[in-house]
Amino acid sequence: MARDGIEKVNNSISRIRSAVRYIRSSPQRSQQFNICCEQEKLPSKCTLCLDVPSKWNYTYLMLETVLKFQKAFERLDNQEQNLASNLNDGFPNEGDWENAKVLIKFVKTFYEVTKRISGSLYVTANSYLGEVFSMQETLDGWSKSSDDCLSVMARLMKENFDKYWGKFDKINMMLLIAVVLDPQYKLTFVKFCYSRVYTLDKVNELIGRVRELLNRMHLHYQMLDSTSSPYSSSMTQILNDIEVETCKANQAWLRSRYKFLKYLEEQERASSKTEVDRYLEDSLECHTSNFEILGWWKMNSSRYRILSQVARDVLAIPISTIASESAFSTGERILDQFHGSLTPKIVECLICTQDWLRASPLPIEVEERLEELEDLELVIMEDPGVAAAISNSSTLSL
Questions:
Q1: Greatest alpha-carbon span in the chain
Q2: Backbone phi, psi, residue 142, to 5°
Q3: Taking every annotated instance into account, which residue ranges of this chain make up the domain hAT-like transposase RNase-H fold (predicted)?
Q4: pLDDT tens, 153-185?
Q5: Which pLDDT tens digit goes with each residue over 124-136?
Q6: Cα–Cα distance, 195 to 202 (Å, whole number)
Q7: What is the residue range of 250's domain?
């Protein structure tokens, strides 16, 4: 039953893809489609885009655009009576459009999350926990949906989701440390999220592990730091500045200032609270959309001198080093006449050659250029003749 629902969605996507390819295949058809858009008074300035079947995010973008032109497609179908016969998979029907709407609703959340966590121009490590638990709640809700197609897809994805995130003993502690180092969240957010999944004993155990790891990291960075006293550097700097700018008549004030700084230093040493304790006990920062976490740690580096160094290194870790365009690509798992035409001996030779090149001291680049491959896939999808030419040239070269 589950596979039947998925198969129906796949067939619907295939018919919509064929219709888009048919319209984009000639200027005359594109012009006829534009006339249908004008007749339906569609205000959108979007143009039809063809997806790469092995990349789900391109499929999402194609469906998102196509749904805006559903009425134009239906008008074109009514005007051109032989349109369905010109398409191998047939023209999209009402059921196909409904399946597309369901898939868009399902995929949009994951598309947006993938783009956010794959960013390279901003910190992503601190957003991991919120994104994961929002996806979990979304899947839980959809798995109970009255829509059979939506619930089937949600349950299948939930099984894969639990393999990665559902095991308590395999939680990535460094990602939790990154969340704790966000002054908007700290340990409170970790406890809030996991209390909705695990028992109180499990949550307390996890909180203890996170706090112990943060203390160990703080101690390690403190040992590496050459000036362990939080007041020694500031005290020296203040005295040096005042000595330069103040005359000898103010030496009594300098001595008073010096004694006060020494007193603060002794008080800090006598206190049992560490930077970690003080940080966790301080109130949470107000959550804003434009909050600059690195800027916050820079401004508060004098309060949390060692902990700010920990935050600097931990928050530099990206959640994912894979571009969102390739995160859920199925290109490597497709076998067809182009991907599966190599003999076992040729495959062995290629693997050995790549291994030797990687081990070579010379800077030889053997990684594939994903952007060029994506462009090539688009060309192949639009013009099957190009694929045949590439296949023939590859055969001759072998």
A1: 102
A2: -70, -30
A3: 118-221
A4: 788 788 877 777 767 777 888 889 999 999 999
A5: 888 888 888 888 8
A6: 8
A7: 167-314
